[in-house]
Amino acid sequence: MARIMRMGRVELKVLDLEKSVDYYTNVIGLEETGRMGDSVYLKAWDEYDHHSLILTKSNSAGIVHMAFKVESLDDLAYYEKKVEEFGCTTTRITSGTRLGEGEAVHFVLPTGHHCELYYEIEFLGNAVGTINPHPWPLGAKGIAPHRLDHCLLTGDDLKTVTRFFVEALNFRQSEKITTIDGEDLLGSFLFTGNKAHDLAFVKGPDAKLHHAAFHVESLNDVFKAADLLSMHEVPFDVTPTRHGITRGQTVYFFDPSGNRNEAFAGGYMAFPDMPTITWTEDKIGQGIFYHRRELSESFMKALT
């Protein structure tokens, strides 16, 4: 059966390219792997592919595109057909359009976000190798996350975008936020592997980024991330806490362009036969910030 393995990359718009590269390499702790035009390519130490993050110079912040990696070239053709059958127009991105990337299938989601599927990408390997590896690399910089983890996006029609990912891309919904009567969908958390979520949407304006998240190993690493953010005077959105939704541990903060980042640890394992967990609107504060039990104004309104 055709399979989408995981989120493979996200491209973010940044205002000052060199300032952003300094932040993502020295504070986040990613490795720069190449440059092409006004874009810089980066990866985390435990990722094998050429890049998972692209920073592109722009006059505004936000997301350019995100992409999911499929298991084979046949899967790419399979999902291309499924996306078209759903009613979305696809185009092929030719190999080499971006650094290290093979051919990709591009389409626009019902929420207005640009999305791609791909199989081929240059293989660089991780920082510890695959023979008798150490658990983490010596000399790691900054927060040093293992990998890009997920994105949270905003959109108006969450029912349609959820149906798209479930019907066209074979994702499943791990959790949802609804109005008290259950009629309207306010949040949707989607997975394709065994993580609590690979992608999520909350009600809001179309085509906006809420945050891009990086995976760290433990709650201790979330606190270490917060310490590093204070050392570098990076603006916080939310200091370390726990999510009710996904059960993850988290800290939220902003890159130099105002794009929100998250260092995320934990979260339960998801399985295809699990029932969808429902949170109602009256408990949304506890669902997102389990200890504080209320949402901050910045968390709802700071979008790029």
Helices, strands, pairings?
Blueprint: E1 4-14, H1 17-27, E2 31-36, E3 39-43, E4 53-57, E5 62-70, H2 73-86, E6 91-93, E7 104-108, E8 114-118, E9 147-155, H3 158-167, E10 172-178, E11 185-191, E12 199-203, E13 208-215, H4 219-231, E14 236-242, E15 248-254, E16 260-266, E17 277-280, H5 284-288, H6 297-301
Parallel strand pairs: 1-4, 5-8, 9-12, 10-17, 13-16
Antiparallel strand pairs: 1-5, 2-3, 3-4, 6-7, 7-8, 9-13, 10-11, 11-12, 14-15, 15-16
Structure description:
By secondary structure, the chain is α/β, with parallel strands linked by helices. It has two domains: 115 residues, Roll (2,3-Dihydroxybiphenyl 1,2-Dioxygenase, domain 1); 155 residues, 2,3-Dihydroxybiphenyl 1,2-Dioxygenase, domain 1 (Roll). 19% of the residues lie in helices and 36% in strands. It is built from six helices and 17 strands. It has a nine-stranded mixed beta sheet with strand order 14-15-16-13-9-12-11-10-17. It has an eight-stranded mixed beta sheet with strand order 2-3-4-1-5-8-7-6. It starts with a strand and ends with a helix.
